[in-house]
Amino acid sequence: MTNKDIYITGGRVIDPSRNFDQKADLLLSGGLIAQVEKNLQPPLGALKIEANGLIVTPGLIDMHVHLRDPGQEYKEDIISGSLAAAAGGFTAVAAMANTDPVCDNSSVVRYVCDHAARAAVRVYPIGAVTRGLEGKEMAEIGRMKQAGAVAFSDDGKPVVSGMMMRNALQYASGIGALIIVHEEDPSLFAGGMMNEGAVSSVIGLRGISPQAEEVMLARDLLLLKTTGGRLHIAHLSTAGSVELVRRAKSEGLPVTAEVTPHHLLLTDRAVKNTAYSTNTKVNPPLRSEQDRRALWEGLLDGTIDTIASDHAPHHPDDKDVEFDFAPFGIAGLETTLPLLLDEVASGRVKNLTLPLLIDKLSLAPARILDVPGGTLQPGSAADVTIIDPKRITTVTPAAWYSKSRNTPFAGRQLTGAPVWTIVGGKLVMKEGAPAGSVEQG
Amino acid sequence: MQTLRRKDILGLEEMSAEEITLILDTARSMREILQRKIKKVPTLRGRSVLNLFYEPSTRTKASFELAQKYMSADSVSVAGSSSSLVKGETLKDTVRNVEVMGVECVIMRHPVSGSSHYLARSIEASVINAGDGMHEHPTQGLLDMFTIWEKKGHLEELKVAIVGDIRHSRVARSNIWGLTKMGAEVVVAGPPTLMPLDMEGLGVKAYHRVEEAVEGADVVMALRLQKERQESGLFPSLREYADLYGLTPQRIAGAREDALIMHPGPMNRGVEISSELADGSRSVILKQVTGGVAVRMALLYLLLGGAKEE
Amino acid sequence: MALIHKATVMDEKAIRQALRRIAHEIIEHNKGIDNVVLVGVRKRGVPLAERLQVLLKEIESIDIPIGILDITLYRDDLSQRQDQPMVHTTDVPFDINGRQVVMVDDVLYTGRTTRAAMDALIDLGRPASIQLAVLIDRGHRELPVRADYVGKNVPTSRSEEVEVKVREIDGQDQVDILGPGGE
């Protein structure tokens, strides 16, 4: 079945790849962006999307999600995760390797690619850096890259051995592979449950020192000076980490970094204010107000390149236990964009503009992962997200497409939401509902 | 105030000075019952209580059980093991099962901070926190305050020095909250590795030298030192701890002459406190234990004695 | 519904006379007071018991022991009351075993307070007898209880309240009947 052409008219088009920000019409045809022009003639037979008052952007990319497939499909699977992504305004996601079995060989990479073919959005596999995420032997990075892996990471775990990390960076540089690191020194992490600070002192949860992240990050940045290769730092959480990355970038090191919406919006006080809700248990932990402000600064000054959800879905039963026994993680695919749009709408963060936000969510991750997207240049893939900046929604986990419900943002009223998601010229989401119903209805 | 308008007792941080005063006043009336030949009142006949202890406890468990018996409540005690919790039935399921058998109040000790908050929002029955991880041990805090109050006649303006492993101590946290709310000055002392990283949230002054902390103190409280803290590298040895931080008459010479000596038990004699102090005339360590039963009777009455809130 | 004052049934003088009469009756009934102890039931039974103690001393020149009973923990209506009563201390600093115990209260009404007070007393020991002295008996018993010494019998309806004021607590001695307002 060939898709109808799609004609999007009257919207504010923001294309960070060309610094384009004005009212224009778009025509999508044959899975590609055909035309972007003012006052485009409506073509015959095209599906018309009235976008007056809406924002039209390149499809958004979430470069850090956990889809739990294969192995933990009761938490999430590639299909449910992709529907959640579509509902959240994303046209592509990169899925981490800590599945069961671990995505540490080309067979599992191909498994993900095969399932991704039936998914609502583009799903890019990320391969493991080491076999079984054990940090001992290097995984077959080259073969996985050939099979379709877009990056390599032991995310969920750090690469503890300095030598292992050095070898991985060196080896990856030879084949142009990107390494993504989860920075955490296990001895400093020390069984912690939340940020170490005034709040953990009061409520008696074992603390995770900011140094647990910073020590490991400093090591990897030092290694990067001699190894070559590209390094991407997952989920920065501390002011010290921002400073380390800022300095590394000023020295010209090939490093990029991401931040999650929850680290931008919440602090460790959330653990106390929710009386130990396990939905605030996440790794890296929610940090102090000072850290939170530093993360925004880093995002605005370009130290932090992209925002990724670190979507970590868990079954409600997994989280419905005592704090120490609950797994770490916040599910974010369906909240990331509305939360960030709400920050723009509220004006709480000085200098946070819609074009900047769109850049961080589209062009930046496309460049880091070296995947298509991030642009509305005619001839490129017709991945488009359409946003209503005024729409008011309430975070309602029970209505999610994700199988998970774990969010500390439930009940928040937010201004700004995605309303259409188009992947390869195909409508996958309209008004928060998956596209099947749109096309049939 | 004569009624405690709350379902649960989870910590002293969330309690007001008025509530604490009501509990202490009620405990004083309960203490009279403990002096009778027949230590029993019919107040809580037909009320059922579950004691759920996921950590070993002698004193607290015995104290709660006696309080229940003296108040004529029916009670059942279950010893859980937290390791089986991870694998087997969840805490929520365990307690819900007992709840439908008619239990109206659950007393829980649990190794995980915040688990009493979690339980309280998972069930309709009242929850009394008998110690959750490193968070709070509110009934211990209350009985310590009760003991001081009975001896000194007031809590305002008193200087209380708490010495030892503040960082891992739920007893210290409850005492700090309770005593400061009641107008006392609390200072803490111990090796830096056993102090919380950030004392700002607790609002007390910290010292590294015990001698400085106890200067002019009306109360000196030692905390139990756990051997496992040595194993995790926080201090070198029990004997070094005793030499540098153990409470002895010489070390606390700067405290007031009539200073009360307290310890929540169980004591490591010769480590955090010398026998000379623990058994001396200023020691109220055994008074703390009696006070504990009275305080727990008071809490049971205040939580269960009245009609159920609609 | 607000209650309004309907009648004053005892004034300071009447109360004084009633207590004096009760003191004599106690002596007569027990053939002397060598073995008698007084126990006031909180709250207004306590000052009344203290006054009886003074009167008995005036007459017999004997200081008889006096105790205070708080019956809160023995009430049978705790689980029905939204306004949970405060527990006060029971203070009976003597052995009641084998003694003639005279319990003193302000008003005898349903008899439930007296039942609770007897239970509370018996938990303290085994008296030779328990007697009850009240300033007012207003009728409407719900339990088989009667007073041994009554200051005044006051017929009332259930919709009325008897308000006893004593100098030590309320600043004056007076007993009033309050009733619903209007017709």
Would you mind describing this structure in some detail?
The complex is a heterotrimer of chains A (441), B (310) and C (183). Chain A is α/β, with parallel strands linked by helices. Chain A contains 16 helices and 19 strands. Chain A has two domains: 6-56 and 380-392 and 412-437, Urease, subunit C, domain 1 (Roll), CATH 2.30.40.10; 59-369, Metal-dependent hydrolases (TIM Barrel, Alpha-Beta Barrel). In chain B, 39% of the residues lie in helices and 15% in strands. In chain B, strands 7-6-5-8-9 form a five-stranded parallel sheet. The radius of gyration of chain B is 19 Å and the shape is globular. Chain C has one domain (3-72, 93-175): 3-Layer(aba) Sandwich (Rossmann fold). Chain C is globular. The model of chain C has no long low-confidence stretch (mean pLDDT 94). The chains are: A alpha/beta (441), B alpha/beta (310), C alpha/beta (183). The A-B interface holds A 193, 196-207, 209, 275-276, 320-325 and B 13, 85-86, 90-92, 110-115, 117-118, 121, 132-136, 167, 170, 173, 196-202.
Please describe the topology of this protein.
The complex is a heterotrimer of chains A (441), B (310) and C (183).
Chain A: E1 6-15, E2 20-29, E3 32-37, E4 47-50, E5 55-58, E6 60-65, H1 78-87, E7 90-95, H2 106-116, E8 122-127, H3 141-147, E9 151-153, H4 162-174, E10 178-181, H5 186-189, E11 194-195, H6 198-203, E12 207-208, H7 210-227, E13 230-233, H8 239-250, E14 255-259, H9 261-265, H10 269-273, H11 289-300, E15 306-307, H12 316-319, H13 336-346, H14 354-361, H15 363-369, E16 384-394, E17 413-423, E18 426-430, E19 433-434, H16 435-440
Parallel strand pairs in A: 1-4, 1-5, 6-7, 7-8, 8-9, 9-10, 10-13, 11-12, 13-14, 14-15
Antiparallel strand pairs in A: 1-2, 2-3, 5-16, 16-17, 17-18, 18-19
Chain B: H1 17-34, E1 48-53, H2 59-70, E2 74-79, H3 82-87, H4 91-99, E3 105-110, H5 115-122, E4 126-132, H6 138-152, E5 159-163, H7 170-181, E6 185-189, E7 205-207, H8 210-213, E8 219-222, H9 227-231, H10 238-245, E9 260-262, H11 275-278, H12 285-304
Parallel strand pairs in B: 1-2, 1-3, 3-4, 5-6, 5-8, 6-7, 8-9
Helix pairs in contact in B: 1-6, 1-12, 2-12, 6-7, 6-12
Chain C: E1 3-10, H1 12-30, E2 36-41, H2 45-60, E3 66-69, E4 100-108, H3 112-122, E5 129-137, E6 149-153, E7 161-165, H4 167-170, E8 174-180
Parallel strand pairs in C: 2-3, 2-4, 4-5, 5-6
Antiparallel strand pairs in C: 1-8, 7-8
